């Protein structure tokens, strides 16, 4: 099977939960910092996954396409 | 995107993340944290975002992890073992993972395979930053300059 977006999102959710576990169950400040950094890494993984798997964004030079920007990016 | 490297890297990343969350010694947890970010950067490479993966390696493994290690080594006094596990936090993390997994599996529109894309080169990122995103780029540059000047002002006031 090829990995779908679901699989990447579940990996990211597991990474987020591990960070949450580290941030909530530890008492030392550096442990809590490490947990927060892991949660931020999971969020970045989500961003990259949605960029890679969404069909019309990664395939084209969409930032040149005014119609696309008006439709999806409201800028 | 191929399956076997993805599964290997994902398992390695999650094992390192769990080790970083549960190991008792602070130094072991920090090294596991660095390994976690190596795995996340490898996932970024696998997903085709080379620039973000390189930035992650430079910033996290090169700066943040080394900074944490130096902080531990320089302030060794009360860095011992962490006391016990807070079971409420563990339960909350497991509940969060279960809820997120349920929501992801329930959403049908994310069950898609990766489309074929053009390679994302640094040249394309630069073109996007210099055309459509020139105002956000300038705002971030202004923010960084303000932070730099603020740091300089703080240091100068401390010397007096």
Could you explain the architecture of this structure?
The complex is a heterodimer of chains A (75) and B (160). Chain A is mainly α and 75 residues long. Chain A contains 4 helices and no strands. In chain A, helix 1 runs antiparallel to helix 2 (29-53). The longest helix of chain A has 25 residues, at 29-53. Chain A is elongated and about 50 Å long. With 160 residues, chain B is mostly helical. Chain B has 6 helices and no strands. In chain B, helix 1 packs antiparallel against helix 2 (26-46) and helix 2 packs antiparallel against helix 3. Chain B starts with a helix and ends with a helix. The mean pLDDT of chain B is 86. Classes of the chains: A mainly alpha (75), B mainly alpha (160).
Using brief descriptors, characterize the structure shown:
heterodimer, A: 75 residues, mainly alpha, 4 helices, B: 160 residues, 76% helix
Mind sketching the topology for me?
The complex is a heterodimer of chains A (75) and B (160).
Chain A: H1 5-25, H2 29-53, H3 55-58, H4 66-73
Helix pairs in contact in A: 1-2
Chain B: H1 3-22, H2 26-46, H3 50-74, H4 87-106, H5 122-131, H6 134-159
Helix pairs in contact in B: 1-2, 2-3
Anisotropy-based shape of chain A = elongated
Shape designation of chain B: extended
Fraction in helix of chain B? over 70%
- As a percent range, the share of helical residues of chain A equals over 70%
Which two chains touch over the largest interface?
A: A-B, 49 and 66 residues
**Tell me about the biggest sheet of chain B?**
none
Q: What would you report as the Rg of chain A, rounded to the nearest angstrom?
A: 17 Å
Low-confidence stretches of chain A at least 5 residues in length (pLDDT < 50)? none
> Which structural class matches the secondary elements of chain B?
mainly alpha
Q: Which regions of chain B have little confidence, pLDDT < 50, spanning 5+ residues?
A: none
Total helix count of chain B? 6
Number of strands of chain B: 0
Structural class of chain A: mainly alpha
**Quick check: average pLDDT of chain A?**
81
Q: List SSEs of chain B in N-to-C order.
A: HHHHHH
């Amino acid at each position: 099977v090829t990995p779908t977006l679901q699989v990447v999102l579940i990996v990211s959710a597991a990474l987020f939960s591990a960070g949450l576990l580290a941030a909530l169950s530890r008492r030392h400040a550096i442990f809590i910092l490490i947990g927060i950094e892991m949660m931020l890494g999971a969020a970045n993984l989500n961003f990259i996954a949605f960029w890679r798997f969404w069909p019309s964004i990664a395939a084209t030079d969409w930032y040149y396409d005014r119609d696309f920007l008006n439709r999806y990016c409201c800028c | 995107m191929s399956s076997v490297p993805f599964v290997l890297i994902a398992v390695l990343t999650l094992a390192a993340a769990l080790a970083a969350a549960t190991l008792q010694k602070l130094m072991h947890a920090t090294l596991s944290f660095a390994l976690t970010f190596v795995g996340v950067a490898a996932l970024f490479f696998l997903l085709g975002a080379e620039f973000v993966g390189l930035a992650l390696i430079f910033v996290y493994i090169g700066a943040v992890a080394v900074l944490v290690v130096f902080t531990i080594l320089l302030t060794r006094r009360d860095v011992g073992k962490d006391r016990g596990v807070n079971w409420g936090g563990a339960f909350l993390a497991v509940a969060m993972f279960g809820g997120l997994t349920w929501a992801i599996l329930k959403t049908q529109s994310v069950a898609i395979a990766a489309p074929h894309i053009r390679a994302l080169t640094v040249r394309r990122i630069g073109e996007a930053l210099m055309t459509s995103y020139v105002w956000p780029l300038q705002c971030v540059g202004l923010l960084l300059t303000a932070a730099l000047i603020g740091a300089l002002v703080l240091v100068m006031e401390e010397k007096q």
